[in-house]
Automatic annotation (TrEMBL):
The chain crosses the membrane at residues 74-94, 100-117, 124-145, 151-172, 414-432, 438-458, 465-481, 487-504, 511-529, 541-558. Residues 364-410 are annotated as: Disordered. It is found in: Cell membrane. InterPro entries: Memb_transporter_dom (IPR049453). Signal peptide: none annotated. Belongs to the YccS/YhfK family. Coiled coil: none annotated. This is FUSC family protein. Keywords: Cell membrane, Membrane, Transmembrane, Transmembrane helix. Residues 385-396 have a biased composition (Acidic residues). Residues 425-550 form the Integral membrane bound transporter domain.
């Protein structure tokens, strides 16, 4: 019974880790609810009235979610600096509450400073956020100069409770966060292997659903890998350890994606395109039974189950797990492959390579392992991993990019835009209501947070309005049920706060829904609840969103096309850098810092993916552009996968016995790099008319017969070069770059 209980707990833990990598959303929700609860308890014990309770709860929430630094010392400094900012802000709001014009001018100036402060990093962002939100708090509770001492006391208690919860009750150190992210990576890798099992057994009518699960699994695994990379420096003891973990995470991700591609290829009548794994909604290739003897299908199913066990039970030892590991690693040796077709044997080789990546990841995360039960194949894999670990060197960091100046700086431009939009929102909001006009200003300000183009602001405003409309309905229902039961309302407020922060990274619409519902309950507590107030909330929200969009469209506008083109050029430049550096190293050139180049490519691609959301959103009327944007991003993800694979293989060059430098690669891959540069030049300048070149296959340029197999690592290099070359040529067509026909 105890073992069964532990197994259930382990499965629940893995599910939670997979759905919430690093438990970041859970921690944010618990911290905020804990801070608000503790603040309410302290203030209630001193006999505070409802107004101070509401002010303290809102201040505790602001003090908790505003702090974004990762190091505890930096968090403490920002929290300490935030208290005087909050006290000054609430004092100005109270003193100027009767001076309408002066108060409005100060509010606009405060909004400008809050957005402009983002240029000073996380601390500037946090202090600006605290200043703005606390000024809004003073308007919400109707602060006056005579009540300032009580408000000061409530804010001080709120910041103290936030600090206590953050540093003592719900602590989150960089090392602990990174450990949880690693657990999430293994959990998501295990789920991806489960998706491969479903793809193996899927019938003709089920393959589309199975393939969609594989796509989602790959995307989530990559998302977790990027989250780990962003926290390696703070969460590991030294830079060499960080680079080792980064390398092993990349190996596991590449090996898992290759396994899925080869499994799909084995089930289809022809070679599966890598794009199929990256383009949402792409039809699955025609599949049939796995070719070869029926026994090979049963063996592959058994081995995928064994691989999943190795992944999700990474901390387990014992003879049984060692036997599973030895069997899977044996597939890296030709004599251990089962009797099957070449395509199916490729899948078994990929299983072996994935098992090797899982073992390398375990060694990097947990240290040396028991080697007493190793088979000869496992021992050889360990020797390769040890040699690779010893060869990992610290490369030089690239210098920071030269910042833009003046109004071209994104923070300056956004500050000017939001100041103009807020001015419009104040004027329009006061025409709707002289008491609740600040809701329009709040919405206008919020839609500018973490946005960089007019299209992004439009989509965010639409989502906030949609969440607000449904939240008003829910607020009406809850307010009617709660009535005059104050503490019942506060308990529901805590539940809604947790839901708000837990869902914020997933859906801005859901977050807006929970915020509006919570505000309906707060109005009830302040005895200002009415149907008219909640309807006014929707009107002010719509007005604020409209003012934000107008300001973004007319004042120093950044069109979505311009924004996506700039990011697209950056992605192509990073892609060319990674490809050229990897091929150069595979050709015998100097060793470079390929891991960091690959990480920069992934970050640039992530920025582009976010920027294209206005083009791919379901409400966009331009269906053709939507399909083109999704296709281009999927092609770029395919290119990035092959470039990462080339970089990972190139870093094996000094230590792997089956890889040798081949000077011919540089010339053969030169066409691909030139094509990437040509496309980037055309995107940056429409007057560029140079075409993308095509020609013989990479393998034929090296003197081969054009057939690329999976077995040897050198063949795998050619496979990735071939696929990358094809994807780059495919990228030229939707971007309007001419393609030069190959010469006879």
């Amino acid at each position: 019974m105890k073992a069964a209980g532990r197994s259930v707990r382990a499965r629940l833990r893995d599910r939670l880790a997979a759905s919430d990598p690093g438990l970041l959303r859970l921690t944010a929700g618990l911290r905020t609810v804990g801070s608000v609860s503790l603040t309410l308890a302290v203030l209630a014990s001193t006999g505070s009235d409802t107004t101070r309770l509401v002010a303290g709860a809102m201040a505790a929430m602001v003090a908790t979610f505003s702090i974004r630094e990762r190091q505890r010392g930096a968090q403490a400094v920002t929290l300490a600096a935030g208290l005087p900012v909050a006290l000054v802000s609430v004092s100005l709001g109270a003193v100027l509450s009767e001076r309408v014009v002066a108060g409005d001018v100060l509010f606009v100036a405060l909004i400008f400073c809050a957005v402009y402060g983002r240029r000073f990093g996380d601390r500037g962002t946090a202090l600006g956020l605290i200043g703005f939100q606390v000024y809004f708090l003073s308007l919400f509770v109707g602060a006056s100069a005579s009540g300032l001492p009580e408000l000061w006391a409530a804010l001080t208690v709120a910041f103290a409770c936030s600090a206590l919860v953050r540093f003592a009750l719900v602590p989150m150190t960089p090392a602990r966060t990174l450990a949880r992210l690693r657990q999430a990576f293994r959990a998501r890798l295990g789920r991806l292997v489960s998706a491969y099992l479903a793809l193996l057994d899927a019938g003709p009518d089920e393959v589309d659903k199975a393939l969609e699960d594989v796509r989602e699994g790959n995307a989530r695994l990559h998302e977790t890998a990027l989250m780990i990379q962003s926290r390696l420096e703070e969460g590991t003891p030294d830079e060499s350890a960080a680079r080792l973990v980064q390398r092993r995470i990349a190996d596991a991700e590449i090996a898992a994606e290759r396994l899925g591609l080869l499994l799909l290829s084995a089930r289809s009548a022809e070679r599966a395109d890598t794009l199929t794994l990256h383009l949402p909604g792409a039809p699955a290739p025609a599949v049939g039974r796995l070719p070869g003897p029926d026994e090979s299908t049963a063996v592959l199913r058994r081995d995928l189950l064994a691989l999943r066990a190795l992944v999700v039970r990474a901390g387990s030892g014992g003879t049984g797990m060692a036997q599973l590991r030895n069997r899977l690693l044996g597939y890296r040796e030709e004599e251990n492959l089962p009797d099957a077709t070449p395509a199916v044997q490729d899948v078994f080789r990929a299983v072996g390579e994935t098992a090797r990546a899982v073992m390398g990841l375990r060694v990097a995360l947990e240290g040396p392992q028991d080697e007493s039960d190793d088979s000869p194949a496992t021992a050889r894999s360990r020797e390769e991993l040890d040699a690779e670990d010893a060869a990992i060197d610290v490369g030089e960091e690239s210098g920071p990019a030269e910042p833009r100046k003046g109004l071209q700086r994104p923070t300056t431009r956004a500050a000017v835009q939001v100041a103009v939009g807020s001015t419009l929102a104040i004027v329009g909001g006061e025409l709707l209501s002289t008491d609740r006009w600040y809701w329009a200003v709040l919405t206008c300000w919020i839609v500018f947070i973490n946005t960089a183009s007019t299209g992004e602001i439009l989509v965010k405003g639409y989502r906030r309005l949609l969440g607000t409309v449904f939240g008003v309905v829910a607020g009406i229902v809850l307010a009617g049920l709660v009535g005059s039961h104050t503490w019942t309302a506060f308990v529901l407020v805590l539940v809604l706060i947790f839901a708000m922060f837990y869902t914020a990274p997933l859906s801005y619409t859901l977050m807006s829904f929970f915020v509006t519902t919570m505000l309906g309950l707060l109005y009830t507590l302040l005895h200002t609840y009415s149907w008219e107030v909640l309807v006014l909330r929707v009107e002010e929200t719509a007005l604020g969103a409209a003012c934000g969009v107008v300001a973004a469209a007319l004042i120093l506008p950044v069109r979505t096309d311009r924004r996506t083109n700039e990011l697209l050029v950056t992605v192509l430049e990073r892609l060319a850098e990674v490809t050229e550096a990897a091929v150069g190293q595979l050709s015998g050139g100097p060793v470079g810092d390929l891991l960091d180049k690959a990480r920069q490519l992934d970050q640039a691609l992530g920025d582009l993916r976010s920027a294209t959301q206005p083009l791919t959103h379901p409400i966009t009327p331009l269906r053709g552009r939507r399909a083109t944007a999704r296709y281009v991003v999927a092609l770029l993800e395919t290119c990035a996968y092959h470039a990462r694979s080339l970089a990972a293989t190139a870093e094996l060059l000094p230590t792997h016995p089956s890889i040798a430098a081949d000077p011919r690669l540089r010339g053969a891959a030169g066409r691909t790099v030139r094509n990437i540069v040509t496309i980037a030049d055309r995107v940056a300048d429409e007057d560029v008319t140079a075409p993308v070149g095509t020609g013989p296959s990479i393998a034929s340029l090296l003197g081969g017969d054009g057939t690329v197999r999976y077995g040897r690592v050198t063949d795998r290099v050619l496979r990735h070069l071939e696929r990358l070359d094809e994807a780059v040529v495919g990228l030229a067509r939707p971007l309007g770059v001419p393609v030069k026909a190959p010469e006879p």
